[in-house]
Amino acid sequence: DAKTTQPPSMDCAEGRAANLPCNHSTISGNEYVYWYRQIHSQGPQYIIHGLKNNETNEMASLIITEDRKSSTLILPHATLRDTAVYYCIVRPRSGGSNYKLTFGKGTLLTVNP
Amino acid sequence: SQTIHQWPATLVQPVGSPLSLECTVEGTSNPNLYWYRQAAGRGLQLLFYSVGIGQISSEVPQNLSASRPQDRQFILSSKKLLLSDSGFYLCAWSVKGQLNTEAFFGQGTRLTVV
């Protein structure tokens, strides 16, 4: 039970912004939204996470709607190396020693030249 | 800096043979450790996680077992492999006790049971 819904695939032109949507309508008030990506045959890589506010780092921006039921990961200038499966994950704020990430099937983003 | 090592990168094993995959973490202490499996065309499934030496939690019933003999060592084992054990196995670690922290993954072991 991944608690998130993502489109199975998306295409993006190189150099353009890639906007990857995620629905998490059952998210609770203390749950974070995390994004990871997995390039073919490699381990997943952390991208960004957020709780309520929009977040930005050197890799991407995360836009979370006011009701927190959906979010969008933005890669501002996609490159061919950004072709990967992108996972949106809702993670409970455990506050303890456990940390479980439940992955869904994600979105396969293909960046085209 | 912290690093995670997984080996071997690829493995082909006959049905019924034993399995031992090893994962070690460097540059941190007392991490949470995890084993995930990704079957062909499917998402990542959490198999085991560990919060300390000798402490293993299993997420799904299966033909595999895990052990943590040392703080930064996590081992995935099987006494007799099944065809259905084929897949991409990933080890991961995270910092214990922080409210929001990411997990760091190894490069994985691709296991083919024949």
Strand order of the largest sheet of chain A: 1-9-8-3-4
End-to-end gap of chain B: 38 Å
Beta-strand content bin of chain B? over 45%
The largest inter-chain interface, given as chain pair and residues per side, is: A-B, 28 and 29 residues
Features:
heterodimer, A: 113 residues, mainly beta, five-stranded mixed β-sheet, four-stranded antiparallel β-sheet, 9 strands, globular, B: 114 residues, seven-stranded mixed β-sheet, 0% helix, 56% strand
Question: What's a quick, concise take on this entry?
Answer:
The complex is a heterodimer of chains A (113) and B (114). With 113 residues, chain A is an all-beta fold.
What do you see in this structure?
- The complex is a heterodimer of chains A (113) and B (114).
- Chain A has 113 residues and is mainly β.
- Chain A contains no helices and nine strands.
- Chain A has strands at 9-13, 18-23, 31-38, 45-50, 55-56, 61-64, 70-75, 84-92, 107-112.
- The termini of chain A are far apart.
- Chain B has 114 residues and is mainly beta.
- In chain B, strands 2, 4, 5, 6, 9, 10 and 11 form a seven-stranded mixed β-sheet that branches. A four-stranded antiparallel β-sheet of chain B has the order 1-3-8-7, with no helix packed on it.
- In chain B, β7 (65-70) and β8 form a beta hairpin.
- Chain B is globular.
- The A-B interface holds A 2, 32, 34, 38, 41-46, 49, 51, 87, 91, 93-106 and B 32, 34, 36, 42-46, 49, 51-52, 59, 88, 90, 92, 94, 96-97, 99-108, 110.
